[in-house]
Amino acid sequence: MEMLKGERVLDLTRLLPGPYCTWILSRFGADVLKIEDPGYDDYSRSTSLYDLINAGKKSMTLNLKNGSGREIFLDLVSRSDVLVESFRPGVMKRLGLGYETLKEHNEKIIFCSISGYGQNGPYRDIPGHDINYMSISGLLGVNRTKESPVIPTMQIADIGGGMFGALSILASLYRREINGRGEYIDVSMTDVVNSLFNIEYFGVIGGDEEGVLEGKKTFLTGLFPCYNIYKTKDDKFVSLGALETKFWSNFCMGLSREDLIQKQYDTSVIKELKKIFSEKTREEWIEIFKEADALITPIYSPEEVFNDPQVINREVFDRERKILNLPVKFLETTMDEVGKAPEMGESTHEILAELGYEEKGIEDLRKRGAV
Length: 371
Fold this sequence. Notes:
Elements: E1 8-11, H1 17-27, E2 31-36, H2 48-54, E3 58-61, H3 67-78, E4 82-85, H4 91-94, H5 99-105, E5 110-115, H6 130-137, H7 139-142, H8 156-179, E6 183-188, H9 189-196, H10 202-205, H11 209-213, E7 227-231, E8 237-241, H12 245-254, H13 269-277, H14 282-288, E9 296-298, H15 302-305, H16 309-314, E10 317-318, E11 323-324, H17 348-354, H18 359-367
Parallel strand pairs: 1-2, 1-4, 2-3, 4-5, 5-6
Antiparallel strand pairs: 7-8, 8-9, 10-11
């Protein structure tokens, strides 16, 4: 894809948030180079996740604690457009590679830091993972059963942090075309979840703290019959998303239960609907409501997703090549073929040669632990 063709991105990140951010940039056409510590492999490399979100990138090893390694890195910065890092706040500065230092080598560099709590505030130095950021944001306080909060099966903070990092970088690249200046971007994954979770804060802001925090008024906790999950006869599930009156009416008529139309938000109806849904299989219910416009959908297992005709048609997944495509389509722009995820340091020699190092110099760098 030509949208970011020619833009060079240095990726100092591991695991999911940062690599997902740079994967987005890569799929838009940017040239992404993973900078990896020669003695510290990416934890995710042994998983299929690594292959999906690092496809098409290059990798070189570089010891940023080594003087020669830092010198090479600064040379790369002078030739690059974007840098993404996900160390704890302050690490890059302690390495002598903070934003102000990098600006001296490239005033147009766009420097993006992705961290759990952001670069300032009382929690900035506290380590964490997705579950911690979702906890602080209040998301887990609402996403719960009667007994306890439930951990989502999607890493919302990690993926959201990567997405907002990429979005901010794209905006900064556009702005740089106008003013010629670089930018420093501070992405807090907790802030991102707070932003994504904003609909649940409306009640708190309006003064109804107890109602929201106890899940008494949110559609997303299975409180109402019109927006819920129901088990079918074959031990599978369907979802019902009939928030609007017209869809709920269509649903009730599909059941031949017009008497329920006025009970869209009557919680006592849930028990009755559970019994009704238990009388037929999932596919039988989908067939019954196929033309009803009632917002009934099968709940798939991960294995079933790949066989759905809509999913196949949109080509988000390329199972044969184990490729994850961008979940958007462009009419005037063609998606490029993407290569495999890189082995650790596989492009080190190539990159050093591009920087002007000869064989003897490269071997010397290896002996001194710089790469």
